[in-house]
Amino acid sequence: MDRFDKIKEKVYSGDLPISEEEAIELFNHSNILEIGYLADTVRWKIHPEKTASFVIDRNINYTDGCVTECLFCGFHKKPEECTTLDFDTLLKKVEETVKLEGTGILLQGGMNPKLPYSFYIEMLKTIKSAFPQIDIHGFSPPEIQFFSKHFKKPVKQILEEFIDAGLDSIPGGGAEILSDRVRKRISPKKCTSDQWIEVMREAHKLGLKTTATMMFGTGEDYTDRVEHFRRIRELQEETGGFVAFIPWTYQIYRGRLIKFENTGYDYLKTLSIARIYLHNIPNIQASWVTQGKKMGQIGLKFGANDLGSTMIEENVVKSVGVSHTISKEEIIRLIHNAGFDAVQRRNTYGFVKIYKRKQAV
Ligand code: SF4
Predict the structure, then answer these.
(1) What is the DSSP string of 204-271?
(2) Is the CB of 111 under 6 A from ligand 1?
(3) C-alpha span between 51 and 339 (Å, rounded)
(4) What CATH number corresponds to the domain at position 163?
(5) Is there a domain that residue 168 lies in?
(6) Ligand 1 centre distance from Cα of residue 335 (Å)
(7) Would you say residue 360 lies in a domain?
(8) CA-to-CA distance for 136 and 73, rounded, in angstroms?
(9) Helical (H) or strand (E) element with 106
């Protein structure tokens, strides 16, 4: 029995996890249909119901001022040239979200030293008191680490104060690749892998659910990707606080990091291996925002059970020239057409509504 056969046997018998060496073996295996089939097998074991989910929400970027200067970012501006949303504009965006049947917002900004601590507390309180039904999924670990350093407050205290002000969950942004060798090259001023994990650990201990992400294809190697998976799986074993894992490819920006666009083959292979390796994370999301709708839909057969957000507003990926939009009806059609009933969910994967599939169209 060769090594690939052994992995197959583990997946079919449910004898997971696979090891780091086995994950590397999968990366070096050229037949993505075989890997995708294994990922689909894991997906059906975790989600035997014939559904795939999505959320209606919008990304609100409260400020584009940032001093971190990641090499892949087209979004940030110098704090003295930036735009910071006033609370009236912010509330209008939330109101529009509610009108479109949205259940949450993803609140994220740059690391802007010009904003006082009270801005964040007031922002959360203002949104939550006007729209208590809206989930605030906000502030990635690098932002929390920035606040901790800038305002000289422990991470735990910031999280407690944000929760009191209305924060419901944390998005897993800013992870890129959780290997400091890679982080030093692509985002040297951002928090370290340990610091990213520390925020998530504290958040989980305080009862916050979070997602985890991975942006790959910046010139890292497979061992870096597997190290990233390992860090996520280990923390999940400890806390159980991750509700989903969302991998996507780096969107080429001014050729700073790589010369050519990442491939669909690499995306589907990595998505599939994430599903197999991260057996303890309940949901894997396909990223139509970065891969396009058709590739996102195909992802539902390569381990993903979720198509993410309708993304009423998105600014960060758009800033590097990639822009796809989708309506609620379209995301439901993509899911139905792939053979699933569509489930609208909240940011932390709570059930909202089911749209039954009548026929494949
Ligand atoms: S990716 Fe985020 S942290 Fe990095 S420069 Fe852009 S806004 Fe700043």
Answers:
(1) HHTT-EEEEEEEE-SS--HHHHHHHHHHHHHHHHHH--EEEEEEEEPPP-TTSS-SSPPPHHHHHHHH
(2) yes
(3) 8
(4) 3.20.20.70
(5) yes
(6) 32
(7) no
(8) 24
(9) strand 104-108
- The answer to the question of residue 78 being in a domain is yes
Tell me the pLDDT band of 252, cut-offs 50, 70 and 90.
Answer: confident
DSSP string, 164-203: HHT--EE--TT-S-S-HHHHHHH-TTSPPHHHHHHHHHHH
Residue 168: pLDDT over 90: yes
Is 13 in contact with 6 (CB distance < 8 Å)?
no
H-only helix segments in 14-99: 20-27, 32-46, 87-99
Rounded Cα–Cα distance for residues 182 and 32 (Å): 26
Structure-token pair, residue 269: 């292979």
- 268-283 pLDDT per residue, tens: 999 999 999 999 999 9
What is the total count of domains within the chain? Answer: 1
With H, G, I as helix, E, B as strand and everything else as coil, classify residue 350. coil
Mean pLDDT of 187-204: 97
Q: Domain for residue 361, yes or no?
A: no
Rg over alpha carbons for the chain, rounded to the nearest Å, is 20
Which residue's CA is the closest to the ligand 1 atom numbered 1?
73
What pLDDT score was predicted for residue 238? 98
Domain of residue 308 covers 3-355
Task: Pick the closest to residue 293 from 264, 341, 334 (CA basis).
Answer: 334
User: Ligand 1 atom closest to Cα of 73?
Assistant: 6
| Helix %, strand %, coil % of the chain (to 5) | 45, 15, 40
Contact 122, 87 (CB under 8 A): yes
Q: How confident is the model at residue 176 (pLDDT cuts 50, 70, 90)?
A: very high
pTM here is 0.96
State if residue 68 touches ligand 1 by the CB under 6 angstroms criterion: yes
pLDDT at 361: 54
Other beta carbons less than 10 A from residue 304's beta carbon:
30
What local confidence, expressed as pLDDT, does residue 360 receive?
55
